Amino acid sequence: MIDIAIIGTDVFEYNPSARRLTFFADILRHSGFKVACFGVYQLSKYRISKPIREFIPSAFFIISKNRVLAAIINIFLALPLALIITMSKPKVVILSIPKFEPLLLISFSTRLTKSKMIIDFRDPEEEYMLHYHRKGLSLLLAKIIRRINYNIYRRADILISVTKTMVELLEKNLGRRVLYIPNGADLRIFTPVNKALARRRLGLPEDALILVFIGGIARSGFYYEVLKPLSIIKRIREETDTKLLYVLAGPVFDNKLIQELGKFKDVIRYIGILSIKEVVELLSASDIGIIPRVGDPIYDCAIPIKFYEYIAMGLPVIALIRRESELAKIILERKLGIVCNPNDYSCLKTALTSFTDKKRLREYKNNVLEFRKYIDRNIYGVLLINIIKQLTRVF
Protein backbone atom coordinates (compact mmCIF):
# COMPACT_ATOMS: atom_id res chain seq x y z
CA MET A 1 0.00 0.00 0.00
CA ILE A 2 1.24 3.49 -0.84
CA ASP A 3 0.67 6.72 1.04
CA ILE A 4 0.79 9.16 -1.88
CA ALA A 5 0.17 8.71 -5.60
CA ILE A 6 1.48 11.54 -7.78
CA ILE A 7 -0.07 11.63 -11.25
CA GLY A 8 1.59 13.79 -13.89
CA THR A 9 0.24 14.11 -17.43
CA ASP A 10 3.16 16.22 -18.69
CA VAL A 11 6.24 14.56 -17.19
CA PHE A 12 8.69 14.33 -20.08
CA GLU A 13 12.44 14.87 -20.18
CA TYR A 14 12.08 18.14 -22.08
CA ASN A 15 9.31 19.51 -19.82
CA PRO A 16 10.45 21.36 -16.68
CA SER A 17 7.14 20.51 -14.99
CA ALA A 18 8.56 17.02 -14.51
CA ARG A 19 11.32 18.47 -12.35
CA ARG A 20 8.75 20.04 -10.02
CA LEU A 21 7.03 16.71 -9.43
CA THR A 22 10.19 14.62 -9.01
CA PHE A 23 11.39 17.19 -6.46
CA PHE A 24 8.14 16.95 -4.51
CA ALA A 25 8.24 13.14 -4.69
CA ASP A 26 11.78 13.10 -3.26
CA ILE A 27 11.04 15.51 -0.44
CA LEU A 28 7.90 13.57 0.51
CA ARG A 29 9.86 10.31 0.61
CA HIS A 30 12.48 11.93 2.84
CA SER A 31 9.63 12.88 5.18
CA GLY A 32 8.60 9.25 5.59
CA PHE A 33 5.83 8.89 3.01
CA LYS A 34 5.63 5.96 0.59
CA VAL A 35 5.28 7.63 -2.80
CA ALA A 36 4.49 6.20 -6.24
CA CYS A 37 4.53 8.34 -9.40
CA PHE A 38 2.40 7.61 -12.46
CA GLY A 39 2.78 9.20 -15.89
CA VAL A 40 1.34 8.83 -19.37
CA TYR A 41 2.54 8.49 -22.94
CA GLN A 42 1.39 11.27 -25.23
CA LEU A 43 0.84 10.90 -28.96
CA SER A 44 0.85 13.96 -31.20
CA LYS A 45 1.40 14.35 -34.93
CA TYR A 46 5.02 15.19 -34.14
CA ARG A 47 6.12 12.44 -31.75
CA ILE A 48 5.34 9.94 -29.05
CA SER A 49 6.46 11.40 -25.72
CA LYS A 50 7.49 8.98 -23.00
CA PRO A 51 7.33 9.87 -19.29
CA ILE A 52 10.63 10.16 -17.45
CA ARG A 53 11.88 7.03 -15.70
CA GLU A 54 10.68 8.15 -12.24
CA PHE A 55 7.07 7.89 -13.46
CA ILE A 56 5.38 4.56 -14.20
CA PRO A 57 3.66 4.72 -17.62
CA SER A 58 -0.03 4.08 -16.94
CA ALA A 59 -2.03 5.46 -19.88
CA PHE A 60 -1.71 6.74 -23.46
CA PHE A 61 -3.23 10.14 -24.29
CA ILE A 62 -3.54 11.91 -27.62
CA ILE A 63 -2.65 15.56 -28.12
CA SER A 64 -4.55 17.53 -30.73
CA LYS A 65 -5.24 21.14 -31.66
CA ASN A 66 -8.88 20.28 -31.02
CA ARG A 67 -8.62 20.20 -27.26
CA VAL A 68 -12.25 19.31 -26.79
CA LEU A 69 -12.10 16.21 -29.00
CA ALA A 70 -8.87 15.11 -27.33
CA ALA A 71 -10.46 15.59 -23.91
CA ILE A 72 -13.36 13.31 -24.71
CA ILE A 73 -11.14 10.54 -26.11
CA ASN A 74 -8.63 10.82 -23.28
CA ILE A 75 -11.33 10.41 -20.64
CA PHE A 76 -11.71 6.83 -21.86
CA LEU A 77 -7.97 6.33 -22.32
CA ALA A 78 -7.50 7.22 -18.64
CA LEU A 79 -9.24 4.02 -17.52
CA PRO A 80 -6.01 2.05 -16.80
CA LEU A 81 -4.72 4.90 -14.65
CA ALA A 82 -7.98 5.01 -12.69
CA LEU A 83 -7.84 1.24 -12.15
CA ILE A 84 -4.30 1.51 -10.77
CA ILE A 85 -5.43 4.13 -8.25
CA THR A 86 -8.43 2.03 -7.27
CA MET A 87 -6.27 -1.06 -6.69
CA SER A 88 -3.36 0.68 -4.89
CA LYS A 89 -5.66 2.64 -2.52
CA PRO A 90 -3.34 5.57 -1.72
CA LYS A 91 -4.14 7.84 1.21
CA VAL A 92 -3.55 10.92 -0.94
CA VAL A 93 -3.70 11.40 -4.71
CA ILE A 94 -1.94 14.45 -6.18
CA LEU A 95 -3.15 15.13 -9.72
CA SER A 96 -0.80 17.65 -11.27
CA ILE A 97 -1.71 19.73 -14.31
CA PRO A 98 -5.12 17.99 -14.50
CA LYS A 99 -5.81 19.03 -18.11
CA PHE A 100 -9.26 17.49 -17.82
CA GLU A 101 -8.17 14.14 -19.33
CA PRO A 102 -7.97 11.76 -16.35
CA LEU A 103 -9.89 13.98 -13.97
CA LEU A 104 -13.34 12.38 -14.16
CA LEU A 105 -12.15 8.79 -13.61
CA ILE A 106 -9.50 9.68 -11.04
CA SER A 107 -12.11 11.58 -9.05
CA PHE A 108 -14.35 8.52 -9.13
CA SER A 109 -11.44 6.30 -8.03
CA THR A 110 -10.61 8.47 -5.04
CA ARG A 111 -14.23 8.30 -3.91
CA LEU A 112 -14.14 4.48 -4.08
CA THR A 113 -10.89 4.30 -2.12
CA LYS A 114 -11.73 7.23 0.17
CA SER A 115 -8.42 8.82 -0.78
CA LYS A 116 -7.82 12.53 -0.29
CA MET A 117 -7.40 14.40 -3.57
CA ILE A 118 -5.05 17.34 -4.18
CA ILE A 119 -5.24 19.08 -7.55
CA ASP A 120 -2.14 20.99 -8.62
CA PHE A 121 -2.88 23.57 -11.33
CA ARG A 122 -0.30 25.05 -13.69
CA ASP A 123 -2.64 26.51 -16.31
CA PRO A 124 -6.36 27.35 -16.42
CA GLU A 125 -7.03 24.67 -19.03
CA GLU A 126 -10.81 25.05 -19.01
CA GLU A 127 -10.50 28.77 -19.74
CA TYR A 128 -8.10 27.97 -22.59
CA MET A 129 -10.72 25.67 -24.13
CA LEU A 130 -13.38 28.37 -24.04
CA HIS A 131 -10.88 30.82 -25.48
CA TYR A 132 -9.97 28.66 -28.47
CA HIS A 133 -13.37 27.06 -29.16
CA ARG A 134 -15.78 29.94 -29.59
CA LYS A 135 -18.60 28.56 -31.68
CA GLY A 136 -20.62 25.52 -32.61
CA LEU A 137 -20.35 22.06 -31.11
CA SER A 138 -16.78 22.65 -29.86
CA LEU A 139 -17.92 25.59 -27.74
CA LEU A 140 -20.83 23.59 -26.32
CA LEU A 141 -18.54 20.67 -25.41
CA ALA A 142 -15.97 23.04 -23.91
CA LYS A 143 -18.66 24.51 -21.66
CA ILE A 144 -19.83 21.04 -20.61
CA ILE A 145 -16.28 19.89 -19.81
CA ARG A 146 -15.63 23.10 -17.89
CA ARG A 147 -18.78 22.61 -15.77
CA ILE A 148 -17.93 18.96 -15.03
CA ASN A 149 -14.32 19.76 -14.14
CA TYR A 150 -15.21 22.72 -11.96
CA ASN A 151 -17.71 20.63 -10.02
CA ILE A 152 -14.95 18.07 -9.38
CA TYR A 153 -12.52 20.80 -8.32
CA ARG A 154 -15.03 22.13 -5.81
CA ARG A 155 -15.20 18.71 -4.16
CA ALA A 156 -11.44 18.11 -4.07
CA ASP A 157 -9.78 18.23 -0.66
CA ILE A 158 -7.05 20.72 -1.58
CA LEU A 159 -6.47 22.95 -4.62
CA ILE A 160 -2.99 24.32 -5.37
CA SER A 161 -1.83 26.74 -8.04
CA VAL A 162 1.52 28.21 -9.02
CA THR A 163 0.80 31.91 -9.58
CA LYS A 164 -1.12 34.53 -7.63
CA THR A 165 -3.11 35.54 -10.69
CA MET A 166 -4.24 31.97 -11.27
CA VAL A 167 -5.15 31.56 -7.61
CA GLU A 168 -7.40 34.63 -7.87
CA LEU A 169 -8.96 33.35 -11.12
CA LEU A 170 -9.69 29.90 -9.70
CA GLU A 171 -11.05 31.25 -6.42
CA LYS A 172 -13.38 33.54 -8.34
CA ASN A 173 -14.62 30.76 -10.64
CA LEU A 174 -14.84 28.02 -8.02
CA GLY A 175 -15.94 29.97 -4.99
CA ARG A 176 -13.45 28.22 -2.70
CA ARG A 177 -9.92 28.61 -1.37
CA VAL A 178 -6.91 27.81 -3.56
CA LEU A 179 -3.44 27.57 -2.01
CA TYR A 180 -0.47 29.36 -3.58
CA ILE A 181 2.63 27.19 -4.02
CA PRO A 182 4.91 28.65 -6.73
CA ASN A 183 7.07 26.50 -8.97
CA GLY A 184 10.45 27.83 -7.90
CA ALA A 185 13.64 25.96 -8.82
CA ASP A 186 15.69 23.22 -7.20
CA LEU A 187 18.73 25.23 -6.12
CA ARG A 188 20.61 22.02 -5.31
CA ILE A 189 20.61 21.11 -9.00
CA PHE A 190 20.44 24.52 -10.65
CA THR A 191 23.78 25.87 -9.51
CA PRO A 192 26.15 27.37 -12.12
CA VAL A 193 29.28 25.55 -13.19
CA ASN A 194 32.34 27.15 -14.81
CA LYS A 195 31.14 29.15 -17.83
CA ALA A 196 34.27 28.74 -19.97
CA LEU A 197 34.37 25.00 -19.36
CA ALA A 198 30.65 24.66 -20.12
CA ARG A 199 31.07 26.51 -23.43
CA ARG A 200 33.97 24.31 -24.46
CA ARG A 201 32.00 21.15 -23.67
CA LEU A 202 29.02 22.37 -25.70
CA GLY A 203 31.14 23.70 -28.56
CA LEU A 204 29.96 27.28 -28.04
CA PRO A 205 32.18 30.31 -28.78
CA GLU A 206 33.82 31.78 -25.69
CA ASP A 207 33.62 35.38 -26.97
CA ALA A 208 29.89 35.48 -27.80
CA LEU A 209 27.00 37.01 -25.89
CA ILE A 210 24.72 33.97 -25.64
CA LEU A 211 20.93 34.12 -25.35
CA VAL A 212 19.24 30.86 -24.43
CA PHE A 213 15.76 29.40 -24.80
CA ILE A 214 14.81 25.97 -23.46
CA GLY A 215 11.37 24.63 -24.28
CA GLY A 216 9.05 23.54 -27.07
CA ILE A 217 10.16 25.00 -30.41
CA ALA A 218 7.68 25.92 -33.13
CA ARG A 219 7.30 28.62 -35.76
CA SER A 220 4.26 29.93 -33.92
CA GLY A 221 1.59 28.74 -31.55
CA PHE A 222 2.02 26.96 -28.25
CA TYR A 223 3.13 29.45 -25.60
CA TYR A 224 6.22 30.77 -27.37
CA GLU A 225 7.31 32.25 -30.67
CA VAL A 226 11.00 31.48 -30.66
CA LEU A 227 11.71 32.91 -34.11
CA LYS A 228 10.73 36.46 -33.19
CA PRO A 229 14.17 37.58 -31.91
CA LEU A 230 16.11 36.12 -34.84
CA SER A 231 15.90 38.93 -37.39
CA ILE A 232 16.85 41.53 -34.76
CA ILE A 233 19.78 39.45 -33.48
CA LYS A 234 20.99 39.09 -37.06
CA ARG A 235 20.63 42.85 -37.68
CA ILE A 236 22.55 43.78 -34.51
CA ARG A 237 25.35 41.43 -35.46
CA GLU A 238 25.56 43.02 -38.90
CA GLU A 239 25.45 46.59 -37.60
CA THR A 240 27.83 46.22 -34.63
CA ASP A 241 30.88 44.25 -33.61
CA THR A 242 28.88 42.32 -31.03
CA LYS A 243 28.87 38.58 -31.51
CA LEU A 244 25.37 37.48 -30.51
CA LEU A 245 24.39 33.82 -30.51
CA TYR A 246 20.87 32.47 -29.88
CA VAL A 247 20.94 28.92 -28.52
CA LEU A 248 17.81 26.75 -28.55
CA ALA A 249 17.21 23.43 -26.81
CA GLY A 250 14.06 21.32 -26.63
CA PRO A 251 11.67 19.36 -28.83
CA VAL A 252 10.86 20.73 -32.29
CA PHE A 253 7.12 20.75 -33.00
CA ASP A 254 7.40 21.77 -36.63
CA ASN A 255 9.28 19.51 -39.03
CA LYS A 256 9.88 22.34 -41.51
CA LEU A 257 11.30 24.63 -38.86
CA ILE A 258 14.81 23.16 -38.90
CA GLN A 259 15.15 24.17 -42.55
CA GLU A 260 14.00 27.69 -41.72
CA LEU A 261 16.49 27.95 -38.86
CA GLY A 262 19.22 27.15 -41.38
CA LYS A 263 18.75 30.65 -42.84
CA PHE A 264 20.05 32.04 -39.52
CA LYS A 265 22.93 29.62 -38.98
CA ASP A 266 25.34 32.47 -38.19
CA VAL A 267 23.25 33.58 -35.19
CA ILE A 268 21.47 30.45 -34.00
CA ARG A 269 22.45 27.07 -32.61
CA TYR A 270 19.99 24.25 -31.97
CA ILE A 271 21.41 21.56 -29.68
CA GLY A 272 18.51 19.14 -29.24
CA ILE A 273 16.67 17.77 -26.22
CA LEU A 274 18.80 17.87 -23.08
CA SER A 275 19.00 15.99 -19.80
CA ILE A 276 18.82 18.01 -16.58
CA LYS A 277 22.61 17.89 -16.26
CA GLU A 278 22.96 19.22 -19.81
CA VAL A 279 20.37 21.95 -19.13
CA VAL A 280 22.46 23.14 -16.16
CA GLU A 281 25.56 23.15 -18.35
CA LEU A 282 23.84 25.11 -21.13
CA LEU A 283 22.46 27.72 -18.72
CA SER A 284 25.91 28.02 -17.14
CA ALA A 285 27.33 28.73 -20.59
CA SER A 286 24.73 31.42 -21.34
CA ASP A 287 24.44 35.14 -20.52
CA ILE A 288 20.73 35.90 -20.92
CA GLY A 289 17.56 33.81 -20.67
CA ILE A 290 14.84 34.69 -23.15
CA ILE A 291 11.08 34.13 -22.84
CA PRO A 292 9.38 34.90 -26.20
CA ARG A 293 5.79 34.48 -25.03
CA VAL A 294 2.89 34.89 -27.45
CA GLY A 295 0.91 38.08 -26.92
CA ASP A 296 -2.48 36.59 -26.04
CA PRO A 297 -3.79 37.98 -22.70
CA ILE A 298 -5.06 34.49 -21.79
CA TYR A 299 -1.47 33.65 -20.75
CA ASP A 300 -1.00 36.63 -18.41
CA CYS A 301 -1.48 34.41 -15.37
CA ALA A 302 1.30 31.95 -16.28
CA ILE A 303 4.92 32.02 -15.09
CA PRO A 304 6.99 29.39 -16.90
CA ILE A 305 9.34 27.20 -14.87
CA LYS A 306 12.15 28.24 -17.21
CA PHE A 307 11.97 31.71 -15.62
CA TYR A 308 12.81 30.30 -12.19
CA GLU A 309 15.57 28.15 -13.63
CA TYR A 310 17.08 31.12 -15.47
CA ILE A 311 17.09 33.02 -12.17
CA ALA A 312 18.56 30.07 -10.26
CA MET A 313 21.45 30.03 -12.74
CA GLY A 314 22.04 33.77 -12.37
CA LEU A 315 20.74 34.78 -15.80
CA PRO A 316 19.05 38.12 -16.42
CA VAL A 317 15.90 37.81 -18.51
CA ILE A 318 14.55 39.33 -21.70
CA ALA A 319 10.81 38.63 -21.72
CA LEU A 320 8.54 39.30 -24.70
CA ILE A 321 5.32 39.37 -22.72
CA ARG A 322 2.45 41.71 -21.96
CA ARG A 323 3.32 44.22 -19.26
CA GLU A 324 0.02 43.41 -17.56
CA SER A 325 1.16 39.83 -16.91
CA GLU A 326 2.27 38.59 -13.49
CA LEU A 327 5.69 37.63 -14.85
CA ALA A 328 6.30 41.11 -16.27
CA LYS A 329 5.47 42.71 -12.92
CA ILE A 330 7.99 40.48 -11.10
CA ILE A 331 10.75 41.16 -13.62
CA LEU A 332 10.21 44.92 -13.56
CA GLU A 333 9.74 45.22 -9.79
CA ARG A 334 12.89 43.23 -9.02
CA LYS A 335 14.86 44.61 -12.00
CA LEU A 336 15.68 41.10 -13.19
CA GLY A 337 15.81 42.02 -16.86
CA ILE A 338 13.94 43.81 -19.61
CA VAL A 339 10.29 43.39 -20.60
CA CYS A 340 9.04 44.12 -24.11
CA ASN A 341 5.57 43.69 -25.53
CA PRO A 342 5.61 40.66 -27.87
CA ASN A 343 5.36 42.71 -31.08
CA ASP A 344 7.59 45.62 -30.02
CA TYR A 345 10.65 45.02 -32.17
CA SER A 346 12.15 48.41 -31.30
CA CYS A 347 12.10 47.53 -27.59
CA LEU A 348 13.68 44.14 -28.26
CA LYS A 349 16.47 45.74 -30.26
CA THR A 350 17.09 48.23 -27.43
CA ALA A 351 17.09 45.39 -24.90
CA LEU A 352 19.59 43.29 -26.83
CA THR A 353 21.81 46.30 -27.47
CA SER A 354 21.77 47.30 -23.79
CA PHE A 355 22.88 43.84 -22.72
CA THR A 356 25.98 44.17 -24.90
CA ASP A 357 27.12 46.69 -22.26
CA LYS A 358 28.97 44.46 -19.76
CA LYS A 359 28.40 46.90 -16.89
CA ARG A 360 24.63 46.92 -17.51
CA LEU A 361 24.58 43.14 -17.80
CA ARG A 362 26.45 42.83 -14.50
CA GLU A 363 23.94 45.10 -12.73
CA TYR A 364 21.03 42.92 -13.81
CA LYS A 365 22.95 39.80 -12.87
CA ASN A 366 23.53 41.16 -9.35
CA ASN A 367 19.78 41.77 -8.99
CA VAL A 368 19.08 38.22 -10.15
CA LEU A 369 21.53 36.72 -7.66
CA GLU A 370 19.93 38.75 -4.85
CA PHE A 371 16.46 37.48 -5.84
CA ARG A 372 17.63 33.87 -6.20
CA LYS A 373 17.08 32.96 -2.53
CA TYR A 374 13.35 33.66 -2.84
CA ILE A 375 12.74 30.97 -5.49
CA ASP A 376 14.08 27.97 -3.55
CA ARG A 377 11.73 25.07 -4.30
CA ASN A 378 12.58 23.53 -0.94
CA ILE A 379 10.50 26.27 0.74
CA TYR A 380 7.45 25.21 -1.25
CA GLY A 381 8.13 21.52 -0.68
CA VAL A 382 7.83 22.10 3.06
CA LEU A 383 4.43 23.73 2.48
CA LEU A 384 3.27 20.67 0.56
CA ILE A 385 4.45 18.32 3.32
CA ASN A 386 2.51 20.29 5.93
CA ILE A 387 -0.62 20.19 3.77
CA ILE A 388 -0.41 16.42 3.38
CA LYS A 389 0.26 15.86 7.07
CA GLN A 390 -2.86 17.84 7.90
CA LEU A 391 -4.84 15.76 5.40
CA THR A 392 -3.69 12.39 6.66
CA ARG A 393 -3.25 13.26 10.36
CA VAL A 394 -1.17 10.12 10.62
CA PHE A 395 2.44 11.20 10.26
Folded structure, characterized:
The chain is an alpha/beta fold and 395 residues long. It has two domains: 4-184 and 376-392, Glycogen Phosphorylase B (Rossmann fold, 3-Layer(aba) Sandwich); 195-375, Glycogen Phosphorylase B (Rossmann fold), CATH 3.40.50. The chain contains 16 helices and 14 strands. Strands 1, 2, 3, 4, 5, 6, 7 and 8 form an eight-stranded mixed sheet that branches. A six-stranded parallel sheet has the order 11-10-9-12-13-14, with helices on both faces. Helix 5 packs antiparallel against helix 6 (136-155). The longest helix is centred in the middle third of the chain and has 20 residues, at 136-155. It is globular and about 65 Å long.
Whole-number total of structural domains: 2
Which structural class do you get from the secondary structure elements?
alpha/beta
The tally of strands reads: 14
CATH fold-level assignment of the largest domain: Rossmann fold
Tell me what the CATH architecture of the largest domain is. 3-Layer(aba) Sandwich
From the alpha carbons, calculate the radius of gyration and give it in angstroms: 21 Å
Sum up the overall morphology in one term. globular
What is the chain-wise order of helices and strands? Answer: EHEEEHHEHEHHEHEHEHEHEHEHEHEHHH
> In angstroms, what separates the terminal alpha carbons?
15 Å
Roughly what percent helix? 40-55%
The biggest sheet, with number of strands, parallel, antiparallel or mixed sense and barrel status, is: 8 strands, mixed
